[in-house]
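Researcher: I've been going back and forth with a colleague about how MFS transporter might be arranged in three dimensions. Neither of us has a model we trust, so I'd like an independent prediction. The organism is Antribacter soli, in case that matters for your notes. Sequence below.
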Amino acid sequence: MRSRTSPPVPWRPDGVREAAGGLVALSLATFVAITTELVPVGLLPLISDDLAVSESLTGLLVSAYAFMVAALAVPLTHATRRLPRKGLLLGALAVYTASNVIVAVAPTFAVVAAARALGGASHAIFFSVAIGYASRLVRPHLTGRALALVTAGASAGFVLGVPLTTSLGTAVGWRASFMVLGGACALAGVLTAFLLPPVAGGGAPPDDAARGTRRSALATVSTTNALVYLGQYAVYTYVSVLLLATGLAVGALGPVLLVLGGLGLAGTAFAAARLDRRPRHTTIITLAVVAGGIIAVGVVFPSTVGVLAATAVWSAGFGAVASVFQTAAIRTHGASPDVTGALVNATANLGIGGGAALGALVLTGPGLATLPYFGAVIVAAALIVVVLARGAFPATPAAPPAADDARVPDDARSRAS
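Model: Here is an independent structure prediction for MFS transporter. You can compare it with whatever you and your colleague have in mind.
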């Protein structure tokens, strides 16, 4: 028998199958997290009418949330680096629950905004830790598949979470949507507590001659990630406004978003099948489809059929984006998995918040018809960066530094040998 003072046994699962329970838990938690972040998108007109504020101001609920994440992801991840990873995730889910419940009962727009900021602070920790967590559950050569499986939870947030909360909101009121979502967050916390195995933090790559190159690659991936999300959310934050402007009925919003989200799952599956073999090619195809789909929305607007078809292409492409950039960032080995997750989280939400704000400016200035062109140009700029930055987006995955492969449970105790 190994004594209680023996060193903890490294936890090194052989593949995705062995880590399935943990990956399912992270996917479930990611589902409620992304739904919490994006639920105002489908309910934006209802919230605006009920609280007597403009649609552009209501759209800033997404911005305020995202900017909290962008500002707090790195410092909160650094401040909590010695705490158990699993405990942090469970705490974040508890705060998500509280945030949604407060929004559901908020008497004024100011209280809604404050509760959303609370959710943003939780989000800053959750996704930063979750990205690093998923990368530790499997061997390095399976990182792409593991992150794509976890990202499927985010895609499911588009497929089921946002459309269902939108449908519920249009049927019985937007406040009921937030209350139900609060309950879903609490349930996800219980399931995560049972399914997710503990892992350690840390795992920084060695301080060798290539450290500067790895950090530069991580900076390039993070910056490109911000550009993609900036272009995406300049348009997507107001997708319900766009769809209604084509003549789509309010009652059809939920079902349409459900179908569009389902196409996003196809993009996630595409990434899962290819990221561990052809990451660069996968990234280029993904961004080309997203940029092409968004610009097509502008070209065919205000045709209902045309906008729906173009949005379908755009949604399918965007389903792969999160796993593409999370995998690329982790594989730069420019920082520990947690810090890398924080950078991806921060830059994505900087793009989300900036995109929502940019979209609001375009709505009050040039107008709704020009909005897709702004978004498409920004995503196209990100695509150009990927094409030029071969070191940050290599054709095949690079081998990790030796010191970057340690995975030890953070509450590991001695085990019988």
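Researcher: What would you highlight for our discussion?
Model: I'd start with this: The longest helix spans residues 20-51. After that, consider the following. Residues 1-11, 405-417 have pLDDT under 50 and may be disordered.
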